[in-house]
Amino acid sequence: MTDDKGEKAKPARGTKGKDVHSVKLSRDIQAQLGGQLRQMYNDVVSQGVPDKFADLLAKLEKPGESEKSPK
What is the C-alpha to C-alpha distance for residues 71 and 49, in angstroms, rounded to an integer? Predict the structure, then answer.
């Protein structure tokens, strides 16, 4: 793997010099992160689709309608 400069990228290291890809999280930490991610996801989902996007999606679902409507 190379970096932006074309040089060979060094493996990412954690604070104790371990390869960060081999660092394991405890079940408690995983559960806490999972709960926070679910809460964030639920907040985003509950916001719904803005009217502007819903209108655009409705137009895209009707073939030929976009060609008829003036801009």
Answer: 23
Whether residue 13 contacts residue 19, with contact meaning beta carbons closer than 8 Å, is answered with yes
Q: Over the stretch 1-35, which tens digit does the pLDDT of each residue have?
A: 555 666 666 666 656 666 667 778 899 999 999 99
Phi-psi region of 6 (alpha: psi -120 to 50; beta: other; left: phi over 0): left
User: Which element (helix H / strand E) includes 70?
Assistant: none
Let me know the angle formed at the C-alpha of 29 by 46 and 24, rounded to the nearest 5 degrees: 125
Q: How far is CA 30 from CA 33, 53, 59, in A?
A: 5, 34, 42
Rg (CA), the chain: 23
pTM: 0.43
